[in-house]
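User: Let's play a game. I give you a shape written as tokens, and you guess the letters that built it. Ready? Here's round one.
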């Protein structure tokens, strides 16, 4: 099975060698992605198909969806004006909007798919979206579901998966009678039947690959976690005007993230922009750059109104640290 998207997200392929043009991104209405790899896919993939509730988030980030698919109960009037006749309304309520968007992609023969924004926010939606991936993989040759913490993917048959030593891997089966045997994992599985979802979670790879043996009549769902940088590598940002009780760090910024933040900075310092436009630019930079002491994303879109009422100065400090500006703010 071709696994180019998985290889890219696990850092085996560089962005220079990855063929973005082959892929369709489906953006669901969960937490908007903040990792550099996910954002590259969001901006560079050949097509962007949004679940209807995610259309506004996509437009706000600067990319207009090629299509919006769903039951059309969540799309804003502003997004409708922008997207026009590229909105595909599917009224049936037997499946959710992610499923509708996926089936639309299949109808166009777009089978190389990266799903973003499928987790976060409501937990019932998260569980439903993840479980759908097992069904989707039956019809899509190269499909993954990426989060800011890792990537979900499906094995339809016994397979060797390329990995890095010490990677954290969780294994899930939807058939409690299925026997699974592993090679290359710290905690071996020997014809183990996974009666509960936690039964084979939080395992660890020993070398540069691992394999699973199982009856291919029942697919296997896997999750590989990204290795997080410790905040010893981050820089503390003074956010006292927002909250004196917590610490926010600017994470190490890669070149793609730096390019995005540099563009936000141009808007932030542009005196011809309105105060609202300048705030939006600063808030987008803070969403991308700030993490807490555990390396988790510090802000969410729900914090926008709180930050809007506070001082602009911490937003300026985010730019100073992220872009290594030479002057004090």
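Assistant: Ready! My guess for every position:
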């Amino acid at each position: 099975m071709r696994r180019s998207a998985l290889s890219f997200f696990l850092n085996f392929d560089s962005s220079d060698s990855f063929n973005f043009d082959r892929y369709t991104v489906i953006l669901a209405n969960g937490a908007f992605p903040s990792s550099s790899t996910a954002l590259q896919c969001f901006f560079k993939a050949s097509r962007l198909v949004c679940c209807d509730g995610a259309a506004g988030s996509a437009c706000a980030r600067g990319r207009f969806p090629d299509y919006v698919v769903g039951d059309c109960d969540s799309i804003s009037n502003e997004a409708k004006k922008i997207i026009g006749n590229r909105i595909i309304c599917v009224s049936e309520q037997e499946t959710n909007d992610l499923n509708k968007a996926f089936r639309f992609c299949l109808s166009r023969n777009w089978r190389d798919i990266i799903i973003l924004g499928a987790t976060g926010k409501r937990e019932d939606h998260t569980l439903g979206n993840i479980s759908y991936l097992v069904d989707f993989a039956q019809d899509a040759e190269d499909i993954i579901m990426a989060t800011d913490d890792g990537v979900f993917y499906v094995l339809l048959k016994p397979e060797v998966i390329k990995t890095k030593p010490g990677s954290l891997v969780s294994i899930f089966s939807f058939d409690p009678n299925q026997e699974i045997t592993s090679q290359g994992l710290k905690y071996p599985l020997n014809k183990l039947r996974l009666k509960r979802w936690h039964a084979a979670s939080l395992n660890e790879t020993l070398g540069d690959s691992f394999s699973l043996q199982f009856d291919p009549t029942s697919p296997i769902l896997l999750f590989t976690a990204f290795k997080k940088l410790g905040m010893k590598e981050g820089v503390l940002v003074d956010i006292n005007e927002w909250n004196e009780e917590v610490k926010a760090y600017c994470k190490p910024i890669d070149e793609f993230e730096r390019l995005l933040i540099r563009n936000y900075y141009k808007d932030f310092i542009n005196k011809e922009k309105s105060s609202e436009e300048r705030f939006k630019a600063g808030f987008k930079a803070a969403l991308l750059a700030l993490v807490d002491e555990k390396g988790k994303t510090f802000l969410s879109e729900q914090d926008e109104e709180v930050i809007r009422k506070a001082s602009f100065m911490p937003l300026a400090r985010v730019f100073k640290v992220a872009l290594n500006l030479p002057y004090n703010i």
